[in-house]
UniProtKB/TrEMBL annotation:
A Pfam family hit: His_Phos_1
GO molecular function terms attached to this record: phosphatase activity
Name of the featured protein: Phosphoglycerate/bisphosphoglycerate mutase family protein
UniProt KW Isomerase keyword: yes
GO cellular component terms, semicolon-separated: cytoplasm
Native species: Cavenderia fasciculata
């Protein structure tokens, strides 16, 4: 695989789907299945190690585009796992919201774009809304409402039909890209729903090779 770009009407497209490293939410929730209120959870120590180890596979994937969700655990995994590839090969990184996690628990909520930009200045988030993740429209448009406090006290969950729409937007985005080899850093529930629950849940930093034209898949790592 030489990484050369092809036009989007070719079926010679390989997408590597990669789940982020373990988050602090993942670690805490595994203990008692109670939401620990880790909004936009960061990588745990184990997750940082997993993301650093991802770099061992990154160069061999020979990608010509990297796509990340705007959630902190995905951006940090991208930074740790692909930083050398990005520098050495001047690979583009696109941060998009289509494949952000399904909003159901605290960690699925994002942070204001302006806050994320300060922590990850190497990534361009200028095209993303300030309150970019799913929330009820009245919460999104009322700047006096604190989304985290609202989620804690009143609560909300992204409707499945809203997620279905994002999945289709994600597929369309991938198919419209001219790059032939793409790495996507994302999230377990989104990937699970992308394949209509027919594949096992992704482990942290696990890599799946996917042909979006034929829907053929192959696990690259265990």
């Amino acid at each position: 695989m030489n990484g050369a770009s092809t036009t989007s009407n070719s079926n010679n497209k390989t997408v590597y789907l990669i789940r982020h490293g373990q988050s602090t939410f993942n670690a805490a929730y595994a203990i008692n299945k109670v939401d620990p209120w880790h909004f936009d959870a960061r990588l745990s120590e184990l997750g940082q190690t997993q993301a650093n180890d991802l770099a061992k596979h990154a160069e061999g994937l020979n990608v010509d585009l990297i796509i990340s969700s705007p959630l902190t655990r995905a951006l940090d995994t991208t930074r740790r796992g692909f930083s050398e590839v990005i520098k050495q090969k001047s690979i583009k990184v696109q941060v998009i919201t289509y494949h952000s996690e399904h909003v159901a628990t605290s960690d699925d909520n994002g942070r204001f774009r302006s806050h994320v930009e300060k922590e990850f200045p190497e990534f361009d988030l200028s095209h993303i809304q300030e309150r970019w993740w799913y929330m009820p429209e009245d919460v999104r448009t009322d700047e006096k409402i604190d989304p985290e406090e609202y989620f804690k006290t009143i609560g909300f969950k992204e409707p499945w039909e809203h997620l279905d729409k994002r999945i289709q937007q994600f597929k369309d985005y991938i198919m419209d890209r001219n790059e032939s080899v793409i790495a996507v850093i994302g999230h377990s529930e989104f990937f699970h729903q992308l394949f209509e629950k027919k594949l096992p849940w992704f482990k942290n930093c696990q890599i799946l090779k996917w042909n979006p034209f034929t829907n053929e898949t192959e696990w690259v790592t265990n």
